[in-house]
Amino acid sequence: MSTFRNPLAAAAAALVLSACGPQAQQPEAPPAETPSQPSTDTAGSALPRELDPLFAQAAQEFNVPAELLKAVSYTETRWQMVVGEAEFPGQQPAFGLMALRGADLEEGAALAGVTVEAARTDALSNLRAGAARLSQLATDAKVERGDLAAWAPVVAQLSGITNPEAQAEHVHRGVYAVLNQGAVALNQDGSVAASLEPVQVEAKFERPQVRAMAAGPNYSAAIWRPSPNYNSRPTGSTGDPSMIIIHTCEGSYSSCWSWLTNSASQVSAHYVVNEGGTEVSQLVNEANRAWHIGATYDCSLNGSKECWLNGVSANHFTIGIEHGGYASQTSFPAGQIDASAKLSCDIARDNAIVKDSYHIVAHGRLQPATRTDPGPNWPWSTYISKINSYCGTSTPSGEIIIDSNSANNDASKAKFSTTGTWTDGYSAGYYGSGYYYAATEAISAPATFEFYLPTAQTRTVDAWWVEGTNRSATAPFIAYNASGAEVGRVSVNQQTNGGKWVQLGTYSFSAGWNKVQLSRWTTPGYVVMADAVRVR
């Protein structure tokens, strides 16, 4: 886990500087998977351990201040190689450390002498394309290149934001705030991946309007930035808010609320949460229907919950929350998750929405053909737990859930790992944000769910899986205490009872790290499903 030292960068403390994982949030063809090798990372080349030399090379080559290049990149992506998708109609997807998109990506690649594909997927090529495009814009604007403050209009132009207030926010509270405060990103071993020393500079750009910002009509902690893109909810139960949809903007916070309040975009959301969790904008009253999800509801995509809503436009009964950031990012800032959880608690409490992952749900789950957000690394278990905590309905005391996506686990008491060949899957009905499956054969090569107990305790263990006809009818779960002694085993039929907790048994565990393993050693010709384990 990368860490960031300074007030601004603390907002991004959860971000990992590594290759972005695949954007997989889409179900495979249900109901079954077939064993295969793990999929190739589609997010581009691995992010180099040292980014500073790359920034320096690109900056020098195209006569752009290196600190400016770093600040633009940090503001847009938190120094991650992103692979964007088009979250909104008319929006071009963003790529790489610089979040280049559309004409800026193509023109920057041409100026840098690299292919568009290289500018999308290779860190140095992306930085060179971004620097080349900035340089071209600076030439056109006759910028005095040694004057950092004079680059502000060019920074605004590259952002693609057209709303003057959002432009000013992006320049002053984004890029130039990073310049003034600095940032440091560390690799997992503590070495420096990228750094920006503070530079005291005042952007030569009109500041955001100084005016009293009205509070949101439903959430007092929000700024009211009304969007014209909404209509009335239908009368009757199908129009009552009963779900919250979690989105990522596939861009920065400022560009997001700017786009969603533009009448020409014909899209909106009820709320947008900024990257650091320091600001929330409300755009549409919760009583009204925002235009944030282009799908009719299909309960088979959502654990067969609320099937009476099948065929109904999901906008009718949902409240949408956008988040500055990308579905492809490796993790999300803790401050953003915390602010969003407080907001979701408020929405759920006021609208009597069930606070679980079937009613507070990913955009990509309900619209899998064209969307993956908020992506595989949204920390669902932490998020739902925080929502319940803020609403005073916390997870039962002592209960531990170990998800197959480690990003969802509290590392102090829950771990997941695999041995041998396991493939990630996303068919409907999974817990958290996906699962792993593997072929059955005469080899253990297990998936391991570990949990920490401070004292010896007797606990009940449950498991969650996605059912299907090619699943094993004798999937072997084996429980071990902290000393490695087997304390129980059971075989379960994973062809049925999917999408819910199924009790495995009650066992005596010891103090320390205990574990439950799902073995592959059973009747060949099937797959076993490692999704989540609950200890209660």
Blueprint of the fold:
Elements: H1 52-62, H2 66-77, E1 82-83, E2 94-96, E3 100-101, H3 102-112, H4 116-121, H5 123-141, H6 152-159, H7 164-181, E4 183-186, E5 192-196, E6 223-224, E7 230-232, E8 243-246, H8 253-260, E9 271-273, E10 280-282, E11 288-290, E12 318-323, H9 334-351, E13 360-362, H10 363-366, H11 380-390, E14 400-403, E15 414-418, E16 423-425, E17 435-439, E18 447-453, E19 457-464, E20 475-480, E21 486-492, E22 502-509, E23 512-518, E24 527-530, E25 532-535
Parallel strand pairs: 6-10, 8-12, 8-13, 9-12
Antiparallel strand pairs: 1-2, 2-3, 4-5, 7-11, 9-10, 14-25, 15-18, 16-17, 17-24, 18-23, 19-22, 19-25, 20-21, 20-23
Helix pairs in contact: 1-2, 1-5, 2-7, 3-5, 5-6, 6-7, 7-8, 9-11
What does this structure look like?
- Residues 1-24 form the signal peptide.
- Residues 22-47 are annotated as: Disordered.
- This is N-acetylmuramoyl-L-alanine amidase.
- InterPro entries: Amidase/PGRP_sf (IPR036505), Amidase_domain (IPR002502), CBD-like_Golvesin-Xly (IPR033803), Lysozyme-like_dom_sf (IPR023346), NAMLAA_amidase_2 (IPR051206).
- It catalyses: Hydrolyzes the link between N-acetylmuramoyl residues and L-amino acid residues in certain cell-wall glycopeptides.
- The structure is a single chain.
- The chain is of the alpha+beta class and 536 residues long.
- The protein has 3 domains: 41-188, Lysozyme, CATH 1.10.530; 223-390, Lysozyme-like; 400-535, Galactose-binding domain-like (Jelly Rolls, Sandwich).
- Helices cover 24% and strands 21% of the residues.
- Strands 6-10-9-12-8-13 form a 6-stranded mixed beta sheet, sandwiched between helices.
- Strand 9 (271-273) and strand 10 form a beta hairpin.
- Helix 1 crosses helix 2 (66-77) and helix 2 packs across helix 7 (164-181).
- The chain starts with 51 loop residues before the first helix and ends with a strand.
- Mean pLDDT is 88; it is low at 1-45.
